[in-house]
Design brief:
Elements: H1 2-11, E1 14-19, H2 25-41, E2 46-49, E3 74-78, E4 96-101, E5 112-115, H3 122-132, H4 139-152, H5 163-174, H6 179-187, H7 191-203, E6 205-207, E7 211-216, H8 219-224, H9 228-232, E8 247-253, E9 259-265, H10 271-276, E10 280-281, E11 285-290, H11 293-313
Parallel strand pairs: 1-2, 1-3, 3-4, 4-5, 7-8
Antiparallel strand pairs: 6-7, 8-9, 9-11, 10-11
Helix pairs in contact: 2-3, 2-4, 3-4, 3-5, 4-5, 4-6
């Protein structure tokens, strides 16, 4: 698959790199790492990264690109395969769309799709691409890629973390990844973030003695002065690793009434439930968007039904 990526990069002189909206460490890490990788190894190419920005921008900033630049260009979309989740829809103006992803979703936007769900992070795919091709790589490339792998692997503890993951992490460290910078940013929290953690720990609810969950209306983010993304994605694992609980879910209302859903499971694949509601992701970590808390109750019941069927069959 890596030869396809290389061939397309070498074909186009103009390249714009996209990823999903509300980017996490892997979305930004893979995007910024690939931007730097192409710029360093193909200095005559014009390469830019676009999309919304959030608290992960310590990894690097986005570029400003005019619509006209997309003419005869290659758009590379990382860490997402679904149209409505892509940040900056102007990729549709490009000549060719290359999707590189590791989630369990078929793409509805790709002219060429590279999807390897055996890899813990999209950043691992990009780093492996660099390693296999013996590309030049420096700290500015290795650091965001290492951050992407670190965050998507749950600090190297999630099930898809493999010997290959550690091999690629070592390769990035050997090429200048600033581990101290990455972990300092991951573990340094604002006072409001710390208080939000306490709020979750003290207020989560339990569904049928098997599922921990939170329902957060839009007032929660205002009360703690944090973005919706922080209440949603950053807080879901405050309910992880409770003895006897098979799954946990976080439902967070955004300003427009959309409810972001983060679903996690200890051992059972729950991605089909996310897909049922128009989302997707990994087997044990996935999400979707819904439009009422009544639908949240339906999702909780779907999770409970899955757990019960598993217990009957197990």
């Amino acid at each position: 698959m890596y030869d396809i990526i290389k061939r397309l990069i070498e074909k186009y002189d103009k390249i714009i790199i996209h990823r999903h909206n509300n980017p996490d460490g892997d979305a930004l890490g893979s995007q910024l790492g690939l931007r730097g990788l192409i710029r360093l190894n193909y200095p005559n190419k014009l390469v830019y990264a676009v999309g919304d920005e959030n608290d992960y921008q310590h990894l690097g900033r986005m570029d400003t690109v005019d619509d006209d630049f997309y003419k005869d260009s290659l758009a590379i979309i990382l860490d997402v395969s679904i149209e409505r989740l892509v940040s900056d829809q102007r990729y549709k103006l490009s000549d060719h769309v290359l999707v590189i992803d590791h989630h369990l979703n078929a793409s509805d936007i790709a002219d060429t799709e590279i999807n390897d769900s055996t890899q813990i992070a999209c950043s691992q795919i990009i780093a492996n691409f660099a390693k296999i091709n013996d590309f030049k790589i420096d700290e500015t490339i290795a650091t965001p890629l290492f951050a992407g792998i670190t965050t998507d692997s749950g600090r190297f503890k999630y099930p898809l973390t493999s010997a290959k993951t550690f091999e690629i992490a070592a390769y990035l460290i050997q090429n200048g990844a600033d581990i101290r910078f990455v972990y300092e940013k991951l573990y340094t929290e604002t006072l409001n973030f710390k208080k939000l953690r306490g709020y979750f720990i003290n207020n989560f609810k339990v569904h049928n003695d098997k599922i921990a969950y939170m329902k957060n209306d839009k007032n929660v983010k205002f009360a703690f002065d944090v973005p919706t993304f922080t209440v949603s994605r950053a807080m879901v694992n405050q309910m992880a690793d409770i003895e006897g609980f098979e799954a946990w879910a976080n439902f967070t209302e955004d300003d427009d009434g959309t409810i972001f859903v983060e679903l996690r499971s200890k051992r059972l694949s729950i991605v089909e439930i996310a897909r049922k509601y128009g989302g997707g992701g990994h087997a044990l970590a996935c999400g979707c968007s819904i439009y009422s808390f009544d639908q949240a109750d339906e999702i909780l019941q779907d999770l409970y039904g899955l757990i019960e069927r598993s217990n009957l069959n197990g």
